[in-house]
Design brief:
The protein is α/β, with parallel strands linked by helices. It has 6 helices and 6 strands; from the N terminus they run αβαβαβαβαββα. It has a 6-stranded mixed β-sheet with strand order 3-2-4-1-5-6, sandwiched between helices. Helix 2 packs across helix 3 and helix 4 crosses helix 5. The chain starts with 6 loop residues before the first helix and ends in a 7-residue tail after the last helix.
Length: about 180
Protein backbone atom coordinates (compact mmCIF):
# COMPACT_ATOMS: atom_id res chain seq x y z
CA UNK A 1 0.00 0.00 0.00
CA UNK A 2 1.33 3.43 -0.93
CA UNK A 3 1.46 6.11 1.72
CA UNK A 4 -0.02 9.51 0.99
CA UNK A 5 2.58 12.20 0.46
CA UNK A 6 1.69 15.84 0.59
CA UNK A 7 2.37 17.48 -2.84
CA UNK A 8 5.01 19.77 -1.32
CA UNK A 9 7.02 16.70 -0.29
CA UNK A 10 6.65 15.00 -3.67
CA UNK A 11 8.10 18.08 -5.40
CA UNK A 12 10.72 18.96 -2.79
CA UNK A 13 14.27 19.37 -4.00
CA UNK A 14 15.57 20.05 -0.53
CA UNK A 15 14.46 18.24 2.58
CA UNK A 16 15.32 19.07 6.16
CA UNK A 17 14.98 16.47 8.90
CA UNK A 18 14.33 17.18 12.57
CA UNK A 19 14.88 14.45 15.14
CA UNK A 20 13.35 15.00 18.56
CA UNK A 21 15.03 12.84 21.21
CA UNK A 22 13.41 12.80 24.62
CA UNK A 23 15.84 12.26 27.47
CA UNK A 24 16.13 8.76 28.94
CA UNK A 25 14.37 7.50 32.05
CA UNK A 26 15.59 9.45 35.06
CA UNK A 27 16.54 8.12 38.47
CA UNK A 28 14.16 9.34 41.16
CA UNK A 29 15.88 7.26 43.86
CA UNK A 30 19.24 9.03 43.66
CA UNK A 31 19.48 12.26 45.68
CA UNK A 32 19.52 15.40 43.54
CA UNK A 33 19.43 19.08 44.49
CA UNK A 34 16.72 20.09 42.01
CA UNK A 35 14.90 18.79 38.94
CA UNK A 36 17.57 20.22 36.63
CA UNK A 37 20.19 17.95 38.25
CA UNK A 38 18.17 14.71 38.18
CA UNK A 39 20.40 11.91 36.73
CA UNK A 40 19.58 9.08 34.36
CA UNK A 41 18.55 5.67 35.66
CA UNK A 42 20.45 2.61 34.40
CA UNK A 43 17.50 1.88 32.09
CA UNK A 44 17.75 5.41 30.70
CA UNK A 45 21.48 5.02 30.02
CA UNK A 46 20.95 1.71 28.22
CA UNK A 47 18.14 3.17 26.12
CA UNK A 48 20.23 6.22 25.16
CA UNK A 49 23.07 4.00 23.91
CA UNK A 50 20.64 1.80 22.01
CA UNK A 51 18.99 4.76 20.28
CA UNK A 52 22.38 6.22 19.37
CA UNK A 53 23.39 2.97 17.68
CA UNK A 54 20.04 2.87 15.87
CA UNK A 55 20.67 6.22 14.18
CA UNK A 56 24.22 5.23 13.25
CA UNK A 57 23.20 1.87 11.79
CA UNK A 58 20.30 3.48 9.91
CA UNK A 59 22.63 6.12 8.44
CA UNK A 60 20.59 8.93 9.97
CA UNK A 61 23.01 10.59 12.38
CA UNK A 62 22.48 14.32 12.87
CA UNK A 63 24.61 17.13 11.49
CA UNK A 64 23.96 19.23 14.59
CA UNK A 65 22.67 18.16 18.01
CA UNK A 66 21.31 20.72 20.47
CA UNK A 67 20.61 19.65 24.01
CA UNK A 68 18.78 20.95 27.06
CA UNK A 69 21.05 21.98 29.91
CA UNK A 70 19.41 19.46 32.29
CA UNK A 71 21.82 16.72 33.43
CA UNK A 72 19.58 13.86 32.25
CA UNK A 73 19.28 15.39 28.76
CA UNK A 74 23.01 16.07 28.43
CA UNK A 75 23.85 12.53 29.55
CA UNK A 76 21.28 11.07 27.14
CA UNK A 77 22.83 12.91 24.20
CA UNK A 78 26.43 12.13 25.18
CA UNK A 79 25.73 8.41 25.66
CA UNK A 80 23.83 8.17 22.36
CA UNK A 81 26.48 10.06 20.40
CA UNK A 82 29.31 7.98 21.85
CA UNK A 83 27.54 4.65 21.30
CA UNK A 84 26.54 5.61 17.76
CA UNK A 85 29.89 7.21 16.92
CA UNK A 86 28.12 10.33 15.68
CA UNK A 87 30.37 12.84 13.98
CA UNK A 88 28.37 16.00 14.52
CA UNK A 89 28.58 19.34 16.24
CA UNK A 90 26.88 19.40 19.64
CA UNK A 91 25.90 22.24 21.90
CA UNK A 92 23.86 22.89 25.01
CA UNK A 93 20.93 25.31 24.96
CA UNK A 94 19.65 26.31 28.39
CA UNK A 95 16.42 27.52 26.78
CA UNK A 96 15.38 23.94 25.98
CA UNK A 97 14.85 23.22 29.67
CA UNK A 98 11.23 24.02 30.59
CA UNK A 99 10.73 25.47 27.09
CA UNK A 100 7.41 26.04 25.37
CA UNK A 101 6.72 24.66 21.90
CA UNK A 102 6.84 28.20 20.53
CA UNK A 103 10.30 28.86 21.97
CA UNK A 104 11.62 25.55 20.63
CA UNK A 105 10.19 26.41 17.20
CA UNK A 106 12.08 29.72 17.38
CA UNK A 107 15.28 27.80 18.19
CA UNK A 108 14.69 25.51 15.20
CA UNK A 109 13.96 28.47 12.91
CA UNK A 110 17.19 30.20 14.03
CA UNK A 111 19.37 27.28 12.87
CA UNK A 112 21.69 28.51 10.14
CA UNK A 113 24.09 26.93 7.71
CA UNK A 114 24.25 23.49 6.15
CA UNK A 115 22.33 21.41 8.69
CA UNK A 116 20.22 18.88 6.76
CA UNK A 117 19.52 16.91 9.95
CA UNK A 118 18.99 18.67 13.28
CA UNK A 119 18.56 16.72 16.52
CA UNK A 120 17.14 18.23 19.71
CA UNK A 121 17.37 16.46 23.06
CA UNK A 122 14.80 17.66 25.56
CA UNK A 123 11.69 17.15 27.61
CA UNK A 124 7.99 16.54 27.97
CA UNK A 125 5.38 17.81 27.63
CA UNK A 126 7.07 20.12 25.13
CA UNK A 127 8.24 17.49 22.65
CA UNK A 128 4.84 15.77 22.29
CA UNK A 129 3.11 19.13 21.84
CA UNK A 130 5.75 20.44 19.43
CA UNK A 131 5.74 17.30 17.27
CA UNK A 132 1.95 17.28 17.09
CA UNK A 133 1.85 20.92 16.05
CA UNK A 134 4.67 20.60 13.50
CA UNK A 135 2.86 17.80 11.66
CA UNK A 136 -0.62 19.18 12.26
CA UNK A 137 -1.94 16.02 13.90
CA UNK A 138 -3.70 14.84 16.99
CA UNK A 139 -1.50 14.64 20.07
CA UNK A 140 1.53 12.42 19.61
CA UNK A 141 3.07 10.84 22.70
CA UNK A 142 6.87 10.76 23.03
CA UNK A 143 7.98 8.23 25.70
CA UNK A 144 11.30 8.54 27.55
CA UNK A 145 14.33 7.98 25.27
CA UNK A 146 12.09 7.84 22.18
CA UNK A 147 13.11 9.49 18.93
CA UNK A 148 10.90 10.83 16.21
CA UNK A 149 11.80 12.27 12.84
CA UNK A 150 9.87 14.98 11.06
CA UNK A 151 10.79 16.02 7.51
CA UNK A 152 10.21 19.47 6.05
CA UNK A 153 10.07 20.30 2.34
CA UNK A 154 12.05 23.52 2.58
CA UNK A 155 15.51 24.90 1.97
CA UNK A 156 16.11 26.68 5.28
CA UNK A 157 15.14 26.07 8.88
CA UNK A 158 13.69 29.59 8.98
CA UNK A 159 10.85 28.31 6.74
CA UNK A 160 9.70 25.66 9.23
CA UNK A 161 6.35 26.27 10.88
CA UNK A 162 3.44 24.49 12.49
CA UNK A 163 1.67 22.14 10.11
CA UNK A 164 4.56 22.07 7.62
CA UNK A 165 6.20 18.79 8.65
CA UNK A 166 5.67 15.16 7.80
CA UNK A 167 6.17 12.53 10.51
CA UNK A 168 8.52 9.86 9.13
CA UNK A 169 8.88 7.70 12.24
CA UNK A 170 8.41 7.56 15.99
CA UNK A 171 10.53 4.92 17.71
CA UNK A 172 10.21 4.08 21.40
CA UNK A 173 13.24 2.37 22.98
CA UNK A 174 11.11 -0.49 24.33
CA UNK A 175 10.65 -1.61 20.72
CA UNK A 176 14.04 -0.64 19.28
CA UNK A 177 16.20 -2.07 22.06
CA UNK A 178 14.64 -5.52 21.65
CA UNK A 179 16.15 -5.58 18.16
CA UNK A 180 19.80 -5.77 17.10
CA UNK A 181 20.63 -2.21 18.20
CA UNK A 182 21.15 -3.17 21.84
CA UNK A 183 24.91 -3.88 21.50
Amino acid sequence: MLAYRHPEFAEAKNMLSLILFRHGKSDWDTPFANDHDRPLAHRGKDAARCMGRLLQQAGQTPDLAICSSALRAKDTLQLAARAGRWDCAMRTEAGLYEASSDSVLQLIRSTEGAVPCLLLTGHEPTFSDLASRLVGSAMLRVPTAAMLRIDFACEAWSQVGYGTGELRWLLPPKTVCKLKFKK
